[in-house]
Design brief:
With 263 residues, the protein is an all-beta fold. The chain contains 1 helix and 22 strands. The longest helix is centred in the C-terminal third of the chain and has 7 residues. The chain has a 7-stranded antiparallel sheet with strand order 6-16-13-19-20-21-17. Strands 7-8-9-12-11-10 form a 6-stranded antiparallel barrel. The protein has 3 domains: 36 residues, no CATH class; 112 residues, Trypsin-like serine proteases (Thrombin, subunit H), CATH 2.40.10.10; 76 residues, Thrombin, subunit H, CATH 2.40.10.10. The N terminus is likely disordered. Its cofactor is Ca(2+). It comes from Sparus aurata. Its EC number is 3.4.21.4. This is trypsin.
Length: 263
């Protein structure tokens, strides 16, 4: 199934189509055309989002990583082009400040760009009960300045298979309730659908996938919600939900993301 997010900047009427038959409109006048195809658009993280068992990322090695801020860091996200950020729908706030070029979120490093949102769009079929369709798009109020510290992540051409190693990153807790100042990274494998469904019977939709280690000890949890799961240089997932953190037989659950630029 394919869903289209189409923002028609060429007319006064903008139409956002996040599914082929579901659109919602807003008034405005813009001068460029952006089309994004959302193919496997589905979810990733409940109330726990910290990186456990990982390591401090090399500074600015994840230039797509953003921090969503409303007076404090509350979720992560991924820059997909100079105008758009992808995050999790359960991170929704009507207005957010997107912080790009960060490594240590509590120190001014001179590489940061703080840009407010002009539009925050949740998937129209997002279900807060089962965290389905946990995808959100954020339009920046002005284009990000791309440089060595701020770069978009590539959009996937297909969904990555089980066994693929991926990197998840975020500023969430590294243990207990203490948040990490520096961006944390962790390599995790995508798990098979069978292992995922066995871990969460009756809870996994086609929009979700599991990644991590069934033996526990390594996971993404509090503070990393909405952040990227990057596999082979492509954004494959968004941190969505899970039970506990780094617990045996309870890997992280992620929203599948497949956004393709259409020309």
């Amino acid at each position: 199934q394919s869903s289209v997010l189409n923002e028609d900047f060429g007319a006064r009427l903008r139409t956002f189509c996040i599914q082929s038959n579901i659109c919602f409109e807003s008034r405005g006048h813009f001068k460029q055309t952006t089309n994004l195809l959302l193919s496997c658009v589905f979810p990733v993280a409940l109330d726990d989002d910290k990186i456990v068992g990982g390591y401090e990322c090399q500074a600015h090695s994840q230039p797509h990583q953003v921090s969503l801020n409303s007076g404090y860091h509350f979720c992560g996200g991924s820059l997909v082009n100079e105008n758009w950020v992808v995050s999790a729908a359960h991170c929704y706030k009507s207005r957010v400040e997107v912080r790009l070029g960060e490594h240590d979120i509590y120190r001014n490093e001179g590489t940061e760009q703080f840009i407010s949102s002009s539009r925050v769009i949740r998937h129209p079929n997002y279900n807060s009960w089962n965290i389905d369709n946990d995808i959100m798009l954020i339009k920046l109020s002005k284009p990000a300045t791309l440089n060595s510290y701020v770069q978009p992540v590539a959009l996937p051409t297909s969904c990555a298979p089980a066994g693929t190693m991926c990197r998840v990153s975020g500023w969430g807790n590294t243990m207990s309730s203490v948040s990490g100042d520096q961006l944390q990274c962790l390599e995790i494998p995508i798990l098979s659908t069978r292992d995922c469904e066995n871990s969460y019977p009756g809870m996994i939709t086609d929009a979700m996938f599991c990644a991590g280690y069934l033996e526990g000890g390594k996971d993404s949890c509090q503070g990393d919600s909405g952040g990227p799961v990057v596999c082979n240089g492509q954004l494959q997932g968004v941190v969505s939900w899970g039970y506990g953190c780094a617990e045996r037989d309870h890997p992280g659950v992620y929203a599948k993301v497949n956004l393709k630029k259409q020309h």
